[in-house]
Specification:
The chain is 63% helix and 0% strand. By secondary structure, the protein is mainly alpha-helical. Helix 2 crosses helix 3.
Length: 126
């Protein structure tokens, strides 16, 4: 049975893999396992050992600590605001982040200002 920590690590693994544009198969090949194991890690069905976490961090070019970033906050958030905890694991959110960072600085600032103004207006663009 997955614990909240296993689920957090799995979400962080999925997020980093997607941000790098890797498939589960590609990541699995880099660490010498089957893609089904990556699936199980990402959904929290299987725990990630310390040695495997090290391999994954090397393959994803990130420190091991990345996987634990925000863990305390995520555990607290699940108690106070459970609907928001899944927002950052959605593909749409990751696509938006990738597109945002492909822009130059000035268009990024303008897009952020637009999003904030739409939110202030209640999300109604008309």
């Amino acid at each position: 049975m997955a614990t909240d920590i296993d689920l957090h690590l799995g979400k962080r693994l999925r997020r980093r893999r997607r941000l790098l544009g890797l498939t589960q198969q590609q990541l699995a090949m880099q660490v010498g396992i089957r893609f089904q194991q990556i699936q199980k890690y990402e959904c929290g069905a299987n725990r990630i050992s310390a040695a495997r976490l090290w391999q994954l961090s090397e393959a994803l070019e990130t420190p091991v600590s990345y996987f634990y970033d925000g863990l305390a906050e995520a555990l607290e958030q699940q108690v106070t605001r459970p609907e928001r905890s899944d927002m950052f694991s959605r593909k749409e959110t990751l696509d938006l982040i990738q597109a945002y960072y492909q822009l130059e600085e000035r268009p990024r600032r303008r897009l952020l200002d637009l999003a904030k103004s739409l939110h202030a207006e209640g999300g109604d663009p008309a």
